[in-house]
Design goal:
about 375 residues; mainly beta; 4-stranded antiparallel beta sheet; disordered C terminus; 5-stranded antiparallel beta sheet
């Protein structure tokens, strides 16, 4: 659409050419032209057929027109808009590049971008990309408009997806305390690829939720049992991710134990059972003879007297505060009985009843200094 013309004019001596005017045929003229120099004119985008001529004037005010030259100017061809939208790793920042746009009959002189989220047009620089940070995640229709050197424009649209990426919840291995009722874990390895984590919480089974730290160790307690531990993290767009693991808070049974000593036919038993994750709440002793089982206070002492020589199996059963039990057993040998001292004659012909008094050691279930009596019969 641009036409270049070089006028040539001469005058008869002693006159000289004082002015050359070019008439372009579209209502525009160029005055003050010089013979032998080139002059250009750009026609409107609509194009058309135009008659061009030059008028030369000399110093005697005489003028002369050149022949008319018909010029056909094609209409302007609109530019071609082409662009790419590249979403950044934060899933919010988008780089718009319109360098692929072109103009078949001219050049691209400007371009701009409309984000499609309610914001206005943003001017770009020809040959350079434009970076736009979307304030919120979502799916938008972006528009690019390019302008050529004739003022013609072209647009192109594209779907720009900056949807939020859900966070990742990483639940560390759970550490159970020695009491088998407390536990700790952390969520420090949780992350959000396109934003930040803003909160966290946890619960056991379907119980109450508890607020959790994203940077510190998290502690909890529960009765003995097996639970599903659920942790949940939330990002700055409200997206949630969860992780689940199993927490086993299994009661450790008590360790039944006792120390013992035998003096002839008397055994002294000192209870020494322990429970690493609780307390021993009950102890029962079986002496191995016909005597009924006896309850013994935890940490207490009991004394038992056997009536005859022999081997006896003493068994102690300890029970903890969770109902778990363990047992301790010890074989006891009674190989002598105390020699009885006569006290009273017999009751029937051929029978003598012998009595003896002994003071037993102090025990939990026996008052200090109490006297135990037993009877033996000797037949002759």
């Amino acid at each position: 659409r641009t036409v270049t013309l070089t006028p040539a004019a001469s005058a008869v001596d002693p006159a000289t050419i004082t002015d050359i005017t070019i008439t372009w045929g579209d209502g525009q003229v160029t005055t003050g032209c010089v013979s032998g120099q080139a002059y250009s004119h750009t026609y409107a985008p609509a194009g058309g057929t135009f008659g061009i001529y030059a008028t030369a004037t000399d110093s005697n005010a005489l003028s002369d027109d050149s022949a008319i030259t018909q010029v056909v100017v094609d209409p302007n061809t609109s530019p071609i808009c082409a662009f790419t939208a590249t979403v950044g790793p934060d899933n919010r920042t988008v780089t718009i590049n319109a360098n692929a746009s072109s103009d078949p009959d001219g050049t691209i002189t400007g371009w701009r971008f409309l984000p499609g989220n309610g914001a206005g047009w943003i001017d770009g620089t020809v040959g350079q990309p434009l970076v736009y940070p979307y304030p919120t995640h979502g799916t938008y229709t972006g528009t690019v408009e390019v302008t050529d050197d004739a003022g013609a424009t072209a647009t192109q649209q594209a779907i720009i997806d900056v949807e939020n990426v859900a966070p990742i919840c990483v639940l560390s291995p759970v550490s159970v305390g020695s009491d088998h009722a407390s536990f700790t874990f952390h969520l420090r390895e949780s992350s959000d690829s396109d934003g930040t984590l803003v909160s966290a919480r946890w619960r056991l089974d379907d119980g109450e939720w508890h607020a959790a730290s994203l940077t510190e160790d998290i502690s909890g307690t529960a009765p003995h049992g097996t639970y599903a531990l659920t942790a949940e993290v939330t990002d700055d767009d409200g997206a949630v991710a969860t992780a689940v693991t199993v927490v086993s808070l299994i009661n450790a049974p008590p360790v039944a134990s006792a120390s013992w000593a035998v003096d002839q036919n008397i055994i002294t038993l000192t209870e020494a059972s322990t429970d690493e994750d609780g307390t021993v709440v009950a102890v029962a002793v079986t002496w191995g003879d016909d005597h009924p089982d006896e309850a013994l206070a935890p940490g207490g002492r009991a004394v038992h007297m056997y009536a005859a020589e022999g081997m006896y199996l003493v068994t102690l059963v300890a029970t903890d505060d969770d109902g778990a039990q363990s047992s301790w057993a010890q074989a006891v040998v009674v190989d002598s009985l105390p020699i009885p001292r006569p006290r009273y004659a017999g009751q029937s012909p051929g029978t003598v009843t012998l009595w003896e008094e002994r003071t037993l050691p102090t025990a939990v279930n026996q008052a200090p200094g109490s006297t135990a009596h037993w009877q033996e019969e000797e037949r002759r």
